[in-house]
């Protein structure tokens, strides 16, 4: 038996060594600067109704790398292109997962959808499947006719409103959701009374609206997890109820698809049937794609892909209405490429360089997710000499970055010319390569639907600008158009754009056979 003194000495040495190790590996740097947090709520009171604007203002006082304590959660905010580069390029591997949120838990099948699933083999599998079958150039081209048909229906509807004014966002939303629905589920999801829709369009519409509302609520228990069980705002209860409705909807669609596939010899011509047919293929760790992952991912695609594209297009048209000179230049460009005897097609887009500049400028001033989607630090790390603690939430203020006066001349002015050949930002794109303009995020977890979102926004903006002249409803003059923002799940206009579209092409163009 070992003598007691030896055992005590061993314990003392191990305690000393542990302390020494702790001392040597202690973080040597401080947290990034930020306003002093209040007890318990931390900096929540600093956020106000427009967190992206409040955080931009705080960054002006404290610098482009900001630390906030929201409730009990450490949050770091990147507010310049160079700080975003540090997080999303240099340290991207450390920020590949998203922090758990009540919406992902209660509405997203406990974080099983592509947008919330932690980084790893399941994420890679979902990402690869959707990239190949939904967003690759081939997949996009295969479904081009679908988007063209839906945009033609939108154009036709706008041409026939007569003297009534229209809420452009609503029609754009129906167009994008139906285009996505046809590609992902093989059918329109927001119906349109032509006898071909057999999903419950009204039910779907009301569920999506509620999802956007609940997703936009600032749920206290996301920031003070100890209070989760109290569900102080009743948000979790509402999410659970909504989840039940959504799950019944997706389960019915899955069953219907399986039945159709077995009747048609496993034919699959939409994403859902493709995913079902891939359920036998195992991921790198041997796991198969589960029904819940399919349902969660399809639901995420609708949530992430509809409002983003439609609200950006609404902002683009609002900017064009406010600046008739820019609209005239867009129309002139499209007239010269397309003429006035047909609608724009997606194949025309590469030749419409000024239109593309207009879309870039719209993404710069009105990014639909101004704080991107949050990421979480897997490990502590050091950025720009500051300590980023393990588990901290990263918010990238893409809205502030794209208005940074250090990076942009006249940052608040809508000037598509800045992206024209020979201009300062001619080579800047929105695809995650130029960190001063990252509306789709950047790095490995960049928006998976970027190619589709970009194409949809370019195509809808081009079509609407080409097919119509625009008047604001109620006699509001273009320069008085209210451009205020409202913060929700996506960056919406505070006041919807109510307009009178005036057809400007040959009348046969506004007839659709769909
Ligand atoms: C105007 C269009 C869009 C914008 C500006 C946009 C923006 C974003 C942003 C900023 C992110 C977070 C990226 C990051 O963490 O770095 C994201 C993620 C995502 N987006 Fe988009 N998006 C758009 C359209 C779409 C479309 C059309 C779809 C699908 C139909 C889509 C599906 C997704 C999904 C699934 C994710 C999560 C990806 C992941 O976590 O791996 N988005 N989007």
UniProtKB/TrEMBL annotation:
Keywords noted in UniProt: Heme, Iron, Membrane, Metal-binding, Monooxygenase, NADP, Oxidoreductase, Transmembrane, Transmembrane helix
Membrane topology qualifier: Single-pass membrane protein
Native source organism of the sequence: Eucalyptus globulus
Lineage per the UniProt record: Eukaryota, Viridiplantae, Streptophyta, Embryophyta, Tracheophyta
Family of this protein: Belongs to the cytochrome P450 family.
Matches recorded under InterPro entries: Cyt_P450, Cyt_P450_CS, Cyt_P450_E_grp-I, Cyt_P450_sf
Binding-site list for heme: 447
Subcellular location: Membrane
Keyword Ion transport on entry: no
Pathway in which the depicted protein is active: Alkaloid biosynthesis
GO-annotated molecular function: metal ion binding; monooxygenase activity
Protein's UniProt keywords contain Heme: yes
Cofactor(s) of this protein: heme
Predominant location category: membrane
Record-given protein name: Flavonoid 3'-monooxygenase
A GO-annotated cellular component: membrane
């Amino acid at each position: 038996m070992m003598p007691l003194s030896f055992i005590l000495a061993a314990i003392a040495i191990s305690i000393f060594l542990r302390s020494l190790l702790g001392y040597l590996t202690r973080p040597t740097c401080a947290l990034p600067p930020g306003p002093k947090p209040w007890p318990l709520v931390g900096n929540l009171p600093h956020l106000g109704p427009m967190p992206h604007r409040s955080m931009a203002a705080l960054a002006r006082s404290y610098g482009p790398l900001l630390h906030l304590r929201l409730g009990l959660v450490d949050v770091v905010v990147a507010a310049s292109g160079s700080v975003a580069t540090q997080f999303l390029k240099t340290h991207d591997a450390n920020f590949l997962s998203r922090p758990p949120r009540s919406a992902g838990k209660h509405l997203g099948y406990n974080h099983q959808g592509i947008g919330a699933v932690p980084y790893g083999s399941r994420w890679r599998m979902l990402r690869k499947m959707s990239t190949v079958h939904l967003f690759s150039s081939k997949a996009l081209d295969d479904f081009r006719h679908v988007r063209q048909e839906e945009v033609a229906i939108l154009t036709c509807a706008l041409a026939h409103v007569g003297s009534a004014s229209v809420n452009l966002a609503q029609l754009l939303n129906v167009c994008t959701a139906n285009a996505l629905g046809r590609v992902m589920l093989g059918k329109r999801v927001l119906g349109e009374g032509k006898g071909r829709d057999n999903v419950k369009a009204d039910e779907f519409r009301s569920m999506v609206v509620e999802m956007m509302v609940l997703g936009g609520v600032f749920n206290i228990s996301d920031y003070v997890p100890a209070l989760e069980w109290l569900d102080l705002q009743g948000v979790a209860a509402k999410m659970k109820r909504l989840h039940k409705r959504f799950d019944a909807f997706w389960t019915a669609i899955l069953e219907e698809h399986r039945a159709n596939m077995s009747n048609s010899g496993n034919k699959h011509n939409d994403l859902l049937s493709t995913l079902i047919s891939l359920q036998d293929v195992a991921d790198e760790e041997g796991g198969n794609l589960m029904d819940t992952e399919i349902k969660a991912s399809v639901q995420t695609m609708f949530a992430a892909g509809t409002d983003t594209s439609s609200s950006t297009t609404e902002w683009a048209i609002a900017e064009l209405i406010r600046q008739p000179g820019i609209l005239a230049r867009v129309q002139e460009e499209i007239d010269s490429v397309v003429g006035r005897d047909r609608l724009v097609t997606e194949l025309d887009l590469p030749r419409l360089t000024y239109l593309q500049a207009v879309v870039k400028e719209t993404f710069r001033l009105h990014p639909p997710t101004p704080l991107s989607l949050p990421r979480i630090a897997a490990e502590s790390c050091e950025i720009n000499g500051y300590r980023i603690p393990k588990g901290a939430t990263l918010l990238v203020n893409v809205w502030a970055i794209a208005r940074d006066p250090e990076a942009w001349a006249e940052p608040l002015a809508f000037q598509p010319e800045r992206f024209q050949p020979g201009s300062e930002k001619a080579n800047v794109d929105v695809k995650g390569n130029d960190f001063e303009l990252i509306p789709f995020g950047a790095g490995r977890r960049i928006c998976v639907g970027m190619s589709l979102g970009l194409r949809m926004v370019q195509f809808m903006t081009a079509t609407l600008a080409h097919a119509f002249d625009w008047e604001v409803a109620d006699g509001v003059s273009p320069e008085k158009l209210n451009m205020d923002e409202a913060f929700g799940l996506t960056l919406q206009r505070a006041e919807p754009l109510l307009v009178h579209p005036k057809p400007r092409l040959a009348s046969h163009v506004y007839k659709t056979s769909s």
